[in-house]
Amino acid sequence: MVRVRYAPSPTGLQHIGGVRTALFNYFFSRSQGGSFILRIEDTDRERYNEAALQDIYDTFGWLGIHWDEGPDVGGPYGPYLQSERLQLYRDFAEQLIEQDMAYYAYDTAEELQAMRKAQGDKGSGYDRRGRNYTAQQIADYKARGIVPVVRFKGPLEGETVFEDMILGRVKKKNKDITPDPVLLKSDGFPTYHLANVIDDHQMQISHILRAQEWLSSAPLHVQLYHAFGWSPPQFCHLPMVMGKDGQKLSKRHGSTSVIEFRKQGYLPEALINYVTLLGWAYDDKREFFTTDELEKLFDVARINKAPAVFDYRKLEWFNGVYIRGKSDDELQALMVPILVEAGVVSNPITEQERQILGAALPLVRERMKYLTEAPELVRFLYTDELQYNPDDLIPSKMDAASTARLLQEGRSVVAGFEARADEETEELLRSKAQELGVKLGSLMMPLRIAVTGSRVSPPLLGSMRLIGEARVKQRIDKVLQLLQSKGGTDE
Ligand code: GLU
């Protein structure tokens, strides 16, 4: 029975790497008919952040990814918040002490600091001195009120070996594993290592799919499993996610937190599809998958060893493809709240505004890479009070006078456009451009800006049709006036 978990620590916002780990676990569980568990690893009280915990629920709620067991939905192996399982960790730490596989270490902060200082830059870690304190020394520490930590008494000789599903056999000499790491801190909270191992065992986790940055902890975890007499789950360390420059993906490359992608107008389906391709491929061709399809097709054997590269442009392209794939109703439902929020339409949207949007959908769908582009793309349909940005009004390499001249020419060509097919008007514009010795784009840009108030708009002729000839002319005339006031006419 496959049981996998996503075990985030609520210290920061959910980012691309974490979501990739969660999705791999989720799809693996689904493809195997197994269970997907959310466990919150909140034992680091200094770094704990309430907002980060909420962000976990918000992010996966938005993505539509649900767990079978977790703090919010319960389950047979709860509680699923580590901070509610403290007694369990203490009991198991106690058990290791009884087995002489762990011990109370009474060192003071000053002593540890002095030890580190003496080690210099190379810092080899705890020197295991706590193993050898005499009863007298311990009594002295106790008398001074020193609260001990519990440290693991790891094996000093031999090596620790395990099989990783992706990396194959991993071996580490025991003398090279962190010396006697802390299992239970003096505040009574477990460290990540202790809680993680106990919970994976107690929750009957069968496979651990997690980021490769945890690979270095795995040999210690294996030692802990052995110390408890448990067999470890299957390990599966996922390839790193890099930026295009080959460095680990981080804020330096752009936004990485999911909430930012959400605010930018990404669709959850596009993000899920693209992120699942970070280190996994179905074959060397197919790239588009619905979430339902991934639930069936995901296969751990096809996870790559090599690091994956996160390409913002590609995600953007995916998003555009997903937007174009939406039905009119779906797209409208996604756009309306954004238009309301931007004040482009009334709150709530009126029937007339809705109809205008419906008519514009075929035009804007093709142009949108993100939903947040919607207000700029359709604002011109809802107001005649367009704000013309002076920098936009005059295309580069032109001045006010030449812009006004082209706009005037454009105005006479498009006159009567409602009675003609758009192709015909376009042909007329093309010949006019030729006659004037300018590119078609140079003739259309001033028109586009005058009609829509923006350089990026839905297709021009379609847009003109949506607002009608009278308003088109009014807008052009208004811009002609503006250009004139900039010294733009030589008549
Ligand atoms: N709490 C760890 C994290 O934040 C879990 C690592 C693991 O999956 O073992 O990623």
Explain what you see.
This protein has helices at residues 16-31, 50-63, 86-98, 109-119, 135-143, 192-202, 218-228, 258-264, 268-276, 291-297, 312-324, 328-341, 351-365, 374-382, 390-393, 400-414, 422-436, 440-452, 460-467, 469-485, and strands at 3-6, 35-38, 102-105, 149-152, 159-164, 168-173, 182-184, 207-211, 234-238, 241-242, 308-309. By secondary structure, the protein is mostly helical. Helix 16 runs antiparallel to helix 17 and helix 17 crosses helix 18 (440-452). The longest helix is centred in the last third of the chain and has 17 residues, at 469-485. It is elongated, with a radius of gyration of 32 Å. It starts with a strand and ends in a 6-residue tail after the last helix. It binds glutamic acid (GLU). Glutamic acid is lined by residues 7-9, 41, 196, 210, 214.
